[in-house]
Structure formats: C-alpha cells, structure tokens
Amino acid sequence: MTTTDVLGSAGGLGPGRALRPRSKVLPEHARSHNRSLVLQTLYRSGQRSRADLARDTGLTRVTVSDLVAELLAEGLVVELGQRESARPGKPAVLLDINRTAHQIIGVDLSDHDRFRGAVMDLDGALLATAEVPLEDGAGESATGESATGEPATGEAAVAKVRALVLRLVGAATAPILGIGVGSPGVVDLSGTILTAPNLGWTDVRLQDDLHTLTGLPVVVANDANAAVLAEHSYGGATGDMMLIRVGHGIGAGLIIAGTLVYGSHFAAGEIGQVMVGTDLGLDATYTREQVLEHWLSVPQLRRGIREAEAAGRDATPVLREAGQRLGISLAPVVGALNLSELVLSGPTDLLDGPLAEATIHTLRNRTMAENHADLAVRMTTQGQDIVLRGAAVLVLSGQLGVS
C-alpha cells in the first residue's frame, strides 16, 4: 500500500477541494464528508453539544448522533461533561476533538542551512523540536559550532531527512496521527518531489520512502503550500491570499476561493525562476542571473548585505532592490487575481522594513490603484515555524478532513 492509498480515504488536499467543508453533499459522498463536517466544526469551535452540531452543520440530529458515536469509539472525540444551564430538563453533554489523543510530526526542508522538525499537538503547538545541519561534517547546530563542509544534496540529503524523522518519531509521547513534510521544489500529489534544484533532487519519492521507513501516514507537499495552509488555518487570514516564502529559494502558495491552487504541472507559485530583470533589454533571453531568486533568496540577500557593509556602504539599497524586483514579479498576479493580501514568510530582519515597503510601493505603481487600494503586504503571523505548522495542517486535512 502506498502513502497515497493511506491518505486517499480521508480526502486529502487534491485540486479543487475546499479546505473547510461547510455544507451537505450528495448521498454517495455523504458519509466521509459529514464526518469531516462534524470534526471541522468541533476543531474550530470546540465544546459543542450534539444539538449544537446539528444546528451548525445542517445535519439531522440522528446523523450527528450516529457520527458522534463512531468518533467517540475511535477516540477522536471526547465528552467533556454536562453544560451548565438554568433551563429545565437534562443539560446537554458537551463534546470536543480529543486534542491529546494523537500527535503530529512536521518537517521543514526549506531552510538554506538545515532541516527542522517538530512533534506537535493537534492545534499545531510545538511539543518537541529537532534539527540537522545540511552541511556535511557539521556538528549538531545546538552546540553553537560553525558548520563546515558542503551542503548535503541528493541521496545524502534524503538520508538526513530519514534520520530527522526517526528522531522525531522517537520523541513522540502519544500515537502519531501522521507525518507532514514541507519541501522546496515542485511536488506532485503523490508526494514525489519532481525537482528541487537546490537539494539536487529529481523524482524523489519522499512520501513513499518515509511511509516505508516509519509505517505511518505521510504527506509531502511544497513548502510554500504548507506555509499558506498554516497562515490560513492558524493566522486568521481571510479572502484570497498569496504567501511568498523566502528561503534557499523563492516560492509562493495561493489560496483562491477557499481552495489551494496547484497548477497543471503542480508548479503554481514557482515564482523564484521567473525572469524579472530588464537590465539586458526586453529582447533578452532567459538567464538565471535575471530571475527573482537572484535578488531575493536568503543567501543572496545576506551576501549582498555583507558586501555592502564590507565596503562601508549602507545595505538598505540591497533590500530595496529586492523588494522592487518582487513587486515587479507580483504585479501581474495581483492584477489578474485581484488579491486582497500578500504575506511574506522568511527572516524578519531581511523582509520586514525596506524590502516590504519597496514591494508595496512598486505594486501600487504598477497596478490600477482603485482596484487594489486596500491591498495589504505583511509579514506572516506564524514566525519561523510556519512550514512546520503547515505540515500539521497537511496531516489534519489528510487524516481527519479538518484545517
């Protein structure tokens, strides 16, 4: 059985699937959908009675009672006791998701110098963390020693992922609901990393590999897609949004009309390799030296700042130019989709300030003002753990149908 089989029965995050079910569906899909509907309502609202669930979901009381009995038997839902009430009659029994019954493992492969992982509860809170440096020959980063050697790529990088996952599995203190992984590059729905140039990966079947290694449900997705799910689920984002993830490379996650956008070849949001330089003229052919990643990736920004400071110059122009290039690349997307919000995710010291200011200034100059007057560009509310928490959402959606 592949991991795709394991996750398929729970719905997963396929193209066109709404992240949060809100209404009844056709009879042939009703059972699994209504189950997710009850779990979603409890996950978001908590402490609801059976009657509350029937009102909130539009399901009949008989259907709700049947589903709740099933979920109680599986240990996914718990009874919290009777609601305090001054009304006559027997008080209603309150229910909630059993938030301590399972834990989730999340892995973030997007940092330019290390892989990070965490054991989390069902609400995305980090219970234990671990990391492994990417550079070969480096000691554990917790020692504070400088890493030496070349960054691991190819099979060596996969081996580091396996070791990190096994370490996290050993750190869990409750049954593991599943493992979520956010990886840079283009990732298809089977969890195969079609290409991740910075890690030297092509057609790496990481999802099946980790499922075979651990025997647990695993879902692997693009790191920017995981990040935008975290912002949507835990950050209170509303409306259509685009999250730009700045790390070793540049990627973006898009949620339109409540649905995660994948693209025809699973490459939606791969803006890092879009040519935004016009320095060579409009007839210039594609070159890696003129793509967005050349100005905006964390290693490039750090390098530019170091060079400016070594020469005794102000480093602000480096950040402003990166923000301008980002604005140039995003203006057609904002214009085409009429987005209400752009969220930046990455090192705050690099992105928040001159870079973000230059981005919004460029966007306002390059789009029709009245259509995008309320466009917001902000930093994520999830901090450096956004991909880890997004990995938890991947598991929750795949296994329970909630987000």
Overall pLDDT? 86
- Strand/helix succession: HHHHEEEEEHEEEEHEHEEEHHHEHHEH
Number of helices: 13
Helical percent range? Answer: 25-40%
C-alpha Rg, in Å? Answer: 23 Å
Q: What sort of overall outline do the alpha carbons produce when their principal axes are compared?
A: globular
Strand order of the largest sheet: 5-4-3-6-10
Using DSSP, what is the number of strands? 15
Tell me the structural class: alpha/beta
Largest sheet: 5 strands, mixed
- List low-confidence stretches: 1-11, 138-147
Structure explained in plain terms:
The protein is α/β, with parallel strands linked by helices and 403 residues long. It has helices at 3-8, 27-45, 50-57, 61-73, 154-171, 206-214, 223-234, 292-296, 298-310, 316-337, 348-351, 354-366, 386-400, and strands at 77-82, 93-97, 103-108, 114-120, 126-133, 176-183, 186-187, 193-196, 201-204, 218-222, 241-246, 250-256, 259-260, 341-345, 376-379. A 5-stranded mixed sheet has the order 5-4-3-6-10, with helices on both faces. Strand 7 and strand 8 (193-196) form a beta hairpin. Helix 10 packs parallel to helix 12. The protein is globular and about 75 Å long. Mean pLDDT is 86; it is low at 1-11 and 138-147.
